[in-house]
Amino acid sequence: PSPLDKDQMQGLRGVREFLKVRTSYDVLPLSFRLVVLDIDLLIKKSLNILIQNGIVSAPLWDSRNSTFAGLLTSTDYINVIQYYCQFPHDLNQVDQFRLSSLRDIERAIGVLPLETVSVHPMRPLYEACRRMLKTRARRIPLVDVDDETGRETVVSVITQYRILKFIAVNNEQHTMLLKKPVRDLGLGTYKDLATSTMNNSVLDVIHLMVKHNISAVPIVDEDYRLLNVFEAVDVIPCIKGGAYDELSATVGEALSKRSDDFAGIYTCGQDDRLDSIFDTIRKSRVHRLIVVDDDGGLKGIISLSDILKYVLLYGEEEDSIRGG
Ligand code: ATP
Known about the structure:
This protein has 16 helices and ten strands. By secondary structure, it is α/β, with parallel strands linked by helices. The protein has a domain at 180-316: CBS-domain.
């Protein structure tokens, strides 16, 4: 192997070792606030709470049984929208849905419930990462058992974003070895991209996300140049207050309503190296990178799961055969 390959492999091993000696607990900030929602809450009200708190998901709590009841994410709202599309005459009922109805909504529209995996906060971070990749969960609740009451408590939620940020901040000596360009790594998706234009309706884009099982759709102009990205979380402000009829608005209109603290869109070129992508992750709130050419033409998309998968799994089998 070339020196470049050697460095790359050494960097990857370094990061993997690091993930094995740290726990999910280590990823959490020293002090944080966790918003947990009771499943008796009206779905309509949950939207306002998320927006007011500047968050896009929350653990659910079943206070009757004192148990953790899963995670609320933008996928749940997309399911409600699909329900509304399939049963448009049920708007009154949709308005009365509580978070406890989410499983019924899944059943009614025929989607499989997302597997809710949780991990213990003191288990190795590596385990949480592997589990994330295996289940395609984008976020995993950290569930502990209270010593005194013997009850489950949700400590926090870890996301791919938090993990990659943690790696980027604490592993510069390893990530700086990752000098191979994105092009050579085949990192991301470049074929059959799901895209949209500003003039399509929000509903069109939501259907596209459901169909392709993705959480972001690049918005392009007539020359296929990147203008923006519509994300699953952008759905939340669209249906605030139960305004499902506003989903027929255009993507352009919806994106103009984004909150001021929107993290922004991050792009990279196919010649960019993974070390510089980790620099971007270290400095910014990156949720995906859109790959563009020099003229801003859309080339591909690199999701956080693509990066995590590469960092954890690339060359793994050969490694385990050689090294045991
Ligand atoms: P998140 O972006 O929320 O972290 P994720 O990492 O699973 O979730 P998705 O956006 O769901 O990312 O992407 C899953 C896979 O689909 C990835 O391999 C990604 O490269 C690819 N992908 C993402 N967006 C698109 C798109 N618009 N068109 C085609 N493929 C996509």
